Amino acid sequence: MITRKSKREIEQMQKAADLLVLTHKEIAKMIRPGITTAEIDAFVEDFLRQHDAIPEQIGFNGYEYATCASVNDEICHGFPRDEKLNDGDIVTIDMVVNLHGGLADSAWTYAVGNVDDEGKRLMDVTLQSLYKGIEQAKAGNRIGDIGHAIQTYVEAEGFSVVRDFTGHGVGPTMHEDPLIPHFGKPGKGIRLKEGMAITIEPMVNEGTWQSKMDSNGWTARTVDKGRSAQYEHTLIITNGDPIVLTEQNR
After folding, report:
1. Where are the beta strands (DSSP E) in 112-188?
2. Which residues are part of a known binding site?
3. pLDDT in tens for each of the 250 residues of the chain?
4. DSSP state of 11
5. What CATH number should be reported for the domain holding residue 189?
6. Number of domains present in the structure of the chain
7. Binding-site residue ranges for substrate
8. What is the pLDDT of residue 152?
9. CA within 20 to 30 Å of 88's CA: 32, 75, 199, 227, which one?
10. What are residue 91's DSSP bridge partners?
11. Residue-level pLDDT at 1
12. Where does the chain bind a divalent metal cation 2 (predicted)?
């Protein structure tokens, strides 16, 4: 069931998003060769609880961590671990914050030390593709308009868009309808309506878009060992430009 958020609900989601943005900005200060994603995860859980928030991912279908931490060829849902990040890695940190019932969801890919030019370009194209999708996220447009804008941009740059994982509605729980694919045809799919809360979160690969699952049942990675990047925002649909709750450049 697709819900449309009230003014009060949007205000509470914005408070959760503000805390999530602050958390990502703290993570950005921590990212360096030698740190572990387990250390980052421990920081996130402690930081959120200090601010009276709940790391919503803990306990979701048995998931044990406050964050997902996906390194290099891991597309999404990587487990935080004690292995040190190396110079030249890229790492995506994804989290969902619950602040007094308001939810916000955002992932960000970080460069660890000195990343090569192609890695930087992968990250840049992925981030730009997110905003290409956001441009189409307005009342009256359809879900396919979002996916088409992302797919055509990414493929023109020589990368591929993951098809096995999508954006989604958010609130009152972490994953709600509708699904938001990052590929598709314009004018197709559910029509967007004012007050809908969704995530757009393109995952973009250096090589082919296909993924495979690790034995842990959670972590997806590229089949050809190419790197993958992801950026995600939570937004509210309006009759004009969407409200990007998790925007970091306010």
Report:
1. 160-161, 167-169, 176-180
2. 77, 94, 105, 168, 175, 201, 232
3. 889 999 999 999 999 999 999 999 999 999 999 999 999 999 999 999 999 999 999 999 999 999 999 999 999 999 999 999 999 999 999 999 999 999 999 999 999 999 999 999 999 999 999 999 999 999 999 999 999 999 999 999 999 999 999 999 999 999 999 999 999 999 999 999 999 999 999 999 999 999 999 999 999 999 999 999 999 999 999 999 999 999 998 7
4. H
5. 3.90.230.10
6. 1
7. 77, 175
8. 98
9. 199
10. 71, 110
11. 82
12. 105, 168, 201, 232
Through-space distance between the first and last CA atoms of the chain, rounded to whole angstroms: 32
- Determine, yes or no, domain membership for 1: no
Name every residue whose Cβ is closer than 8 Å to that of residue 72 and which is 6 or more positions away in sequence: 89, 90, 91, 227, 228
Exposed/middle/buried for residue 156 (C-beta within 10 Å: 0-12, 13-18, 19+)? exposed
| In contact, 187 and 220? CB cutoff 8 Å | no
Structure token digits, residue 151? 């797919």
CB 130 within 8 A of CB 202: yes
Domain assignment present for 250: no
Task: Walk across the sheet containing 176-180 and list its strands.
Answer: 176-180, 167-169, 197-200, 233-236, 243-244
Contacts with 230 (C-beta within 8 Å, 6 or more apart), sequence order: 70, 75, 76, 92, 94, 107, 109, 126, 201, 202, 203, 204
Partners of 193 in beta bridges: none
- Binding annotation for a divalent metal cation: 94, 105, 168, 201, 232
Q: Is position 158 within any domain?
A: yes
Q: How many CB atoms lie within 10 A of CB 62?
A: 8
Helix (H/G/I), strand (E/B), else coil: 184: coil
Residue-level pLDDT at 69: 98
Percent helix, strand, coil in the chain, to 5, is 30, 25, 45
